[in-house]
Amino acid sequence: MAASIGMMDAAYFVGRGEILSWINATLHLNLSKVEEAASGAVQCQMMDMIHPGVVPMHKVNFDAKTEYDMIQNYKVLQDVFNKLKIEKHIEVNKLVKGRPLDNLEFLQWLKRYCDSMNGGIINENYNPVERRCKGGKDRNIKGSYKSSKLLHANNTDNGMCVDESSGPKGRHKSDMSSGANSVGEIQALQQEIMDLKISVDDLEKERDFYFGKLRDIEILCQTPEVEDLPMSLAIKKILYAVDAKVSALGEAQEILTKSGDDAAASDAQD
Fold first, then answer.
1. Residues 42/23, Cβ–Cβ less than 8 Å
2. Within 13 Å of residue 243, how many CA atoms lie on the same side as its CB?
3. Which of 29-33, 138-142, 220-224 shows the lowest mean pLDDT across its residues?
4. C-beta of residue 44 within 8 angstroms of C-beta of residue 77
5. Rounded Cα distance, 42 and 59, in Å
6. Strands (E), 161-234
7. What are the DSSP calls for 117-151, one per residue?
8. Hey, how many other C-beta atoms are within 10 angstroms of the C-beta on 12?
9. How far is CA 67 from CA 70, 95, 98, 153, 230, in A?
10. Residue pLDDT, tens place only, 216-237
11. What is the rounded average pLDDT of the residues 93-112?
């Protein structure tokens, strides 16, 4: 079961590009970043595709922008997991922050789960756009976000920035002031985006570095000469632990302690 995969599973080595292509092709969306799925709506609809009739799509908000609205989507998803007896801990507080790495890992798990059901065969009769319509939220997640921002900007420009009584000259000054403010805001946003991209790249490099180290350790522990040694068994106990909420360190230490006790008893008999 995909709900029980460990962090060293191949599922967590699937790249962002493949994840996004899978989401867009399956649900007829146009996401360009994994954090655009932070609202939980995509995850709910993926489960709706795999388990028809289980997800109450009318409760799924594809326009969720606030953390409160996103949390409601994850409550729907958690209820679905409970119904299906899927033992997967959803770290809602991290996901709703929109951090790329947290959302990527959850989507990697979700893809592995979907691939494990029905042999990975997609239900050809499933119409994702129609299902979103039935939920009353037939919108492109990415597109609706941009449209709402554009509408807000237009309303702002057309609301308080223009004073009809001031005549053409007054309107010209107001337009120039508004334009200057807009340029400054755009430059600030562009700088923020650049900083975020650098931060994401650094996080991915760090993740890949530690994954590489763990993979080296795993390969070493699988070497025939040492794979049955207590230390190798203890290390693999930690590597292959599936419960993110409980540390496997105690069980690993028990293996070493038992091995030491057995060795001492053997020496005493000799």
1. yes
2. 7
3. 138-142
4. yes
5. 13
6. none
7. SGGG---TT--HHHHHHHTT----HHHHHHHHHHH
8. 16
9. 5, 10, 10, 22, 46
10. 898 999 888 988 899 999 898 8
11. 93
Rounded (10°) CA dihedral 259, 264, 269, 270: 100
Instruction: Give the Cα separation of 49 and 220 in Å (integer).
Output: 40
Are 63 and 84 in contact, with CB atoms under 8 Å apart?
no
- Find, among 54, 46, 57, 110, the residue nearest to 84 by Cα: 54
Task: Give the CA distances from residue 20 to residues 28, 174, 183, in Å, rounded to whole numbers and listed in that order.
Answer: 11, 42, 31
Q: Residue 119 — left, alpha, or beta (φ > 0 → left; ψ -120 to 50 → alpha)?
A: left
SS3 98: coil
Q: Please state, in angstroms and rounded to a whole number, the distance separating the CA atoms of residues 74 and 135.
A: 16
CA contacts within 13 A on the Cβ side of 58: 2
Q: What type of residue sits at position 57? A: M
Please report, in angstroms and rounded to a whole number, the separation of the first and last CA atoms in the chain. 46
Contact between 57 and 44 under an 8 Å Cβ cutoff? The reply is yes
pLDDT score for 135: 61
Q: In terms of Cα–Cα distance, which of 32, 33, 50 is closest to 103?
A: 33
Query: Closest Cα partner for 211 from 40, 52, 64, 11?
Result: 11
Residue 10 is which amino acid? Answer: A
> Is the pTM for the entire model greater than 0.90?
no
Rounded CA separation 164/60 (Å): 43
Written as one letter, the residue type at 225 is E
Residue identified by tokens 């028809």 is 52
Tokens of 156: 């702002």
Q: What is the pLDDT of residue 241?
A: 81
Q: Could you tell me which residues come within 8 angstroms of residue 90 by beta carbon, excluding any fewer than 6 positions away?
A: 74, 77, 78, 81, 106
Interatomic CA distance for residues 162 and 173, integer angstroms? 10
